[in-house]
Amino acid sequence: MATANVYNRTGKSVGTVDLSDTLFGQKVHKQALYESVRNYLANQRQGTHDTQTRSEVAYSGSKLYRQKGTGRARAGSARTPVRVGGGVAFGPHPRDYSYKLPKKIKRLALRSALSDRAAAERVSVVEDFSMDAPKTAEMAKLLGGMPLAGRHTLVVLPAGSEVLYKSLRNIKGVRVLRYTDLNAYSILWADNVVFTKEALSGAEEVFGS
Q1: Shared-domain flag, residues 127 and 36
Q2: What is the pLDDT of residue 131?
Q3: I need a labelling partner for 124 at 20 to 30 A (CA). Which of 21, 29, 93, 199 fits?
């Protein structure tokens, strides 16, 4: 069974906690990770790219020069795609890139990503605490006191922790998610995954069954 170090709000280690094997002790499924990341990135695309066809280019539609007697090839329009400044043939137009991925594949990818981070001892837990007002400096001090490797850290919070969310969101290299929004892409992006105790219990209850 995988374990994670538990830290208090000052960043000092106060013990360890056992991680659920159903969520943190699974075999890494590379194909599921690939499919999940590809789906996540595709769903983030806006698809607002657009090119002008020959019917949309702002050129006159009149014939460039007479059909015969010039010694040149026939030309009917300046908007043809073969001319500089003409329309684009088969260019991209606005479209929706999003698609649905089976729920079982998403769950398998999520468990694989968490298991990979747990196997590398990159999962940490922070004791639950509350704040009266957002204080970014205090949260930066907390993360700075923890032995976090790499540049990117994902902090997983329970639902309704608005003050903690606002305190963490502006720290460089830190991404904040509620446990209900966990996804394989964000976990793979992070070098370290930090849960609060309440968020860890919620994630194991929602995704570990």
Answers
A1: yes
A2: 85
A3: 29
Strands 3-7 and 13-18: antiparallel
Could you tell me if 33 and 109 are in contact, meaning their C-beta atoms sit under 8 angstroms apart? yes
Residues in the chain, pLDDT under 70 = 209
Angle, CA 169 vertex, CA 168 and CA 174 arms, to 5° = 80
Which pTM does this prediction carry?
A: 0.85
Residue of 199, 185, 204 whose CA lies nearest to 44: 185
Q: Which two tokens stand for residue 135?
A: 């204080």
> What is the number of domains present in the chain?
2
Count of CB atoms situated within 10 Å of the CB of 123: 26
Asked if residue 167 and residue 73 are part of one domain, the reply reads no
What is the C-alpha separation between 156 and 182, in angstroms, rounded?
8
User: By residue range, what is the domain housing residue 56?
Assistant: 47-96
Please tell me whether residues 85 and 165 are part of one structural domain: no
Main-chain phi, psi angles of 112, to 5 degrees: -65, -45
* pLDDT tens digit sequence for 31-53: 999 999 999 999 999 999 999 99
Q: Do 70 and 154 lie in a common domain?
A: no
